[in-house]
Structures are given as structure tokens and as C-alpha cells.
Amino acid sequence: xxxxxxxxxxxxxxxxHVEGLPPLSHSHQFNEIYFLQSGKCHVYIENxxxxxEDGSVLFIPAFxxxxxxxxxxxxxxxxxxxxxxxxxxxxxDDNFKEEIDNxxxxxxxxxxxxxxxxxxxxxEKIQFEKYNIDNLSAPLTKAYFFEMIIYIIRCHRYNDExxxxxxxxxxxxxxxxxxxxxxxxxxxxxxxxxxxxxLSESGLSKKIKAFTNMTFKEYLxxxxxxxxxxxxxxxxxxxxxxxxxxxxxxxNFFGDVFKKNMGxxxxxxxxxxxxx
Length: 276
Fold this sequence. Notes:
By secondary structure, this protein is an alpha+beta fold. It is built from 12 helices and 9 strands. It has helices at residues 85-91, 94-106, 113-129, 137-157, 162-169, 171-183, 190-196, 201-212, 216-234, 239-245, 251-262, 266-275; strands spanning 9-16, 24-26, 31-38, 41-45, 48-52, 56-60, 66-69, 76-83, 108-110. Helix 7 packs across helix 8. The longest helix has 21 residues, at 137-157. It comes from Lachnospira intestinalis.
């Protein structure tokens, strides 16, 4: 497959059956972005060891020998994107070169649940458009790829910069959003959150609206739908199981909310991605 990589890039999404699989060592002329959606593995890059689990993103520079060691019996679901250095430089001007270089130097990023869901969605868009649906597919693929890298850069900056900005004036809002991102599968309500964080319901609503430009209900729904999209493509769970994991006690209600936001039912969404 690597010999057939185009001048742009190739995205490869698959489930790897790891039981009894020997260590996989190789190198190639392309930069590799490895997104682990589920499962665990060790990766060795020039004597450095990285332990990857759900939500890990690993940047492997071109020509670097790397070895994947699968130590669990659970199948691994991952998406890999290969891109040449020439094309990578073409996408990003000097304003981003240092940060792109830092991604391949620091190599490993562990995403939060929300970031994991958002990145999964971007990978799905790239994967879908790479099948050349129409003459808009090529520019959309490039646009989604650009968005994906910029989003990862933001995730890389997050602890150092965004948290600091939040701490200065919106620490409560930051904590609330983190809490929603980590607990969207639970029964979250505006009164319950307001009580937890010592705020009035109207005060909590105003903070979320100012920070996200969404109401509490809109932000919670968006978080749950993004999580559901990720589960639909990366797991074999039933619609009912996904509904419960995403905070919906009724699969019918979940289906109605999903269709309202995505324009199709959860089963149709999963079928569309499976077919492509």
C-alpha cells in the first residue's frame, strides 16, 4: 500500500486483529499520523517507547524506524494518515511550521473525550471524501485535513495556553465544560450543574452561552451526538447501547435527536460510513 500513496496523502481505517500478531517493524518515506480509536499497543521509535490507548495520536516522522507491539488480545481500531513532507509543508506556511515540527518531535498526544470525538469526526469526513463522491471531494478532503491538523495543534497547546486563559477569567466555565465533556453519559441537568458549581441557573446559562455561543442544552446535545458518531463508526455496539452510553434512556428519543442534528438516523449514518 505504501508504494501507491498519492502526492497528497492516504488515509487508512481498519480493525487489526492482534492476538498472536508479531511485532511490526518498518519505515517509509511518508510522515505518519496514527490515531488509535480503541485498543492498546506499544510503539518504539528509535529506542523511545510510547504506550498508546483509546484516544491517542502518534506522529511518526518520515524515514524513522518504528515498531508496533500489540500486547493485548483486544482488537485494535485505528486510523492512519500518511503524507509526504513536501505536501505537509505545502499545506502550512511559516506561521505553523514550528508547531508542526513540534508535533513530530513530541510525538504523542492523549486526547480528552471531547477532543477524541471531534477528531474522530474529522477523520470520518476525510475518509468519506477520499472516495471522490463528486468534484468537490478533493478540495473538501484538503480542507478537512487542514482543519484536523489545526485542531490537533490546538489540543497540543491546550494545557499551556487555553487553560491559562480560562483560569484568568472563566475558570468556572472551563470546569463546567470539562465536567460535561467527561460526564455526558450521565443524567446532566441545568439545575444539577448549577448546584454542583454553586451558581444560579441563569448565571450558569450565561457563562456557557458566552463561552460556547450555545445554550446548556445545545452544548450537551452536541457533545452527546459527537460521542455517538464516534461510537457508531468505531464500535460494534448496538444503537440501544450507544444511546445509553451517550446519556439517553430511550433509543427512540436518541434516534429522534440524532436525526434532527445529522439529517439521518443512527443506523443510516453507520450504514453510510460502512458502505464507504
